[in-house]
Amino acid sequence: EFGERNGLVEQPQVDLAMQLVGNRVDACVLARRDALEQLGGFDASMRGGYEDWELWIRMLGEGFRMLHLPGVGFHYRVRSGSYGDRTDDPLQRAAVVRYVTGKHAHHYALHAQAVIAELHAIQAHDKRLVQQARTVADESLQRAEEAVRAREKAAKELTDLRAEVLQLRADHAGELEQLRSLIAKADVRTVELEGLVRESEARSARLEALLAGLEKEKDKLSEEAHRLVGELDKAMGALAVQREHSAALQGLLGQYEARIHAMENSRLWRMRRQYHKLRALMRTSSDTSKRGFKWLRRVAFLVSRKGRRILRKFFAKVFKALYLITEERPVRIVLGDAPDQLPYTLSGDP
């Protein structure tokens, strides 16, 4: 159960005698359809509640058996105003019980002894619960009365204490006023002293910060001086190297100037100047001059060593082909200097 009540509710194995005393079947019961169809379902005339109790009585009376399985089957919510609360009315419950006992009078007659014994056991149990409740109520009432008396006593003591405090205040009003004045002056002096202390602490903090800044500046200046000295040493070394390099470059420059002067006075250089003069004269804007210059370049290439080698190979292939075409009989051309070594042979009429 959860809601207005919380806990685990366990039902025992049910028989017809126990069911006649009261509903002992769980709300999560599962019944066979053929059993419900055989019994005709719930009694439609029972609108006041307990219709499930009456159905289980009929089912057990017809020989069906209820089997209780252990363990938690479902969570049942308990709340006020539910459908089952209607049977809490004594008149409503009495009417329902009269209807059920009258409808199943034969079952009650057969199990009267077990039903009466169980009812007496329930009555004794309820009587014991009522007695325990009365005992708890009496003890609670006694504790409440003691608490009321203790409260009244404490209230009287508090009233007397307040009266004594008022009397003491009246007797020592002058002394209290003098003490308040001294306390106020002491508070003012304390505030002034705290202000002086805070100002002194602020000045001390500023001086410490200034001193720390000066120390850092001193360290930075010292590091900068060391760095500048090192850079000066490096610069002096680099200057010496630069001077040596400059002297070496001056020597190389003199050598190159001598070589250039010798080159310019050589015959090849004079021929090169004449060539460029001729090329400048031939470099005009007309298309004829451009074509003539191109043919001149081609002729110069053909008379060169590389051009002569290319022409030699070209004419060799041409004359070879002409010879093979004009020869009437099959011929064999041997390549190389040694006639015994024949890499390959050409034969047949081309």
Structure characterization notes:
- It is a single chain.
- The chain is mainly alpha-helical and 350 residues long.
- The longest helix has 92 residues, at 173-264.
- The protein has helices at residues 16-21, 33-39, 51-61, 90-103, 105-110, 112-171, 173-264, 267-282, 287-302, 305-326; strands at residues 2-3, 77-78.
- It has a two-stranded parallel sheet.
- Among the domains are: 2-110, no CATH class; 308-350, no CATH class.
Overall pLDDT metric:
79
Structural class: mainly alpha
Q: Please write the string of helix (H) and strand (E) elements.
A: EHHHEHHHHHHH
Gross morphology is: flat
Percent of residues in helices comes to over 70%
Q: Which stretches are poorly predicted, pLDDT < 50 over at least 5 residues?
A: 342-350
Strand content: under 5%
Distance between the termini: 119 Å
Biggest β-sheet description = 2 strands, parallel
CA-based gyration radius: 67 Å
Count of discrete alpha- or pi-helical segments spanning 4 or more residues: 10
Q: How many extended strands?
A: 2
Strand order of the largest sheet: 1-2
Which features does this protein show?
1% strand, mainly alpha, flat, two-stranded parallel ribbon
Q: What is the topology?
A:
Blueprint: E1 2-3, H1 16-21, H2 33-39, H3 51-61, E2 77-78, H4 90-103, H5 105-110, H6 112-171, H7 173-264, H8 267-282, H9 287-302, H10 305-326
In short:
This protein is mainly α. It has helices at residues 16-21, 33-39, 51-61, 90-103, 105-110, 112-171, 173-264, 267-282, 287-302, 305-326, and strands at residues 2-3, 77-78.
